[in-house]
Amino acid sequence: MAIIRLKPAYKGFLWGGSKLKKEYGNENYPGHVLAETWELSCHSEGLTEVATGEFKGKTFKEYVEASGKSVLGTNCDRFDTFPIVIKFIDAHQNHSVKVHPTNEYSKEHENGAPGGKDECWYILEALPNAGIYYGLNRDLTKEELAERIRNNTLKEVLRFIPVQPGECYYVSPGTLHAIGAGVLAAEIQRNSDISYRAYDFGRVAPDGNPRELHTQKASEVANLSSKMPSFDFGDDLMRCDSFVVDLVDFSGEKILSTDGSTFHSLLVIEGDGMINNAETKQEFQKGDSIFISADNGEYRLKGKGKALLTTIPKA
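^ that's the sequence the OP posted. Answer follows.
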């Protein structure tokens, strides 16, 4: 049984801002621009580190490998790798517009990799009139989409949605999407790095050339309908085959429990408090990421605030 506070991997992409450093517990980050913090990750591009307990200083991946599958839970047995990545994202500038393939397309076109990616964005902060790019504002043909990617006019047909804190958006495979400037969000995603860039707002690479756009693959996998999708997640904030997200209000005391089927990931988005099980007690604050092993059993949250709880569903 284990409750582990984690230390994120930092990403200083040029489009980022400073809020993650100043307001989300990353004051020791040496740079000025902090675009993303990878709060729970075994991905080679951003390995989360263990900040407390026996494995302090080791990567979270090393902790999982040493501890065995029981800490992840039986619902993770169907995945070849740790199934998710959780991030904070501070978009001072617009993200690139991308689209993710389905598992079927990925297997056929990406060397057999099951790289279909679901993800969701929970909006934490948004400047006035800030928003996200989400799907299309009118129906397109595959040929028109490819032509707009080639001639950099895709923005004209993207749906822009102004957002407010507390809103959650599910990005299914095939949805053209980007977080817009002025939005700070928590992102929970399937652990896959397969995505196709369709528009980049005129940015250039360090060598001065425009960044690569994936015209053919993006136009093949993108949803060409302008119909706004409707999802029913029941009592959950968001649910897909890869993960489930819920909002936990721990004002006062909250008792939660793992039962061996899935780990719990808590991403603290507001307030502070204390978490404890039968063996350990730890303080936490806004911006902290906490991993609770699947074999932990009952644990308690005391304090005042909110956290995003991510779990892995049964297949």
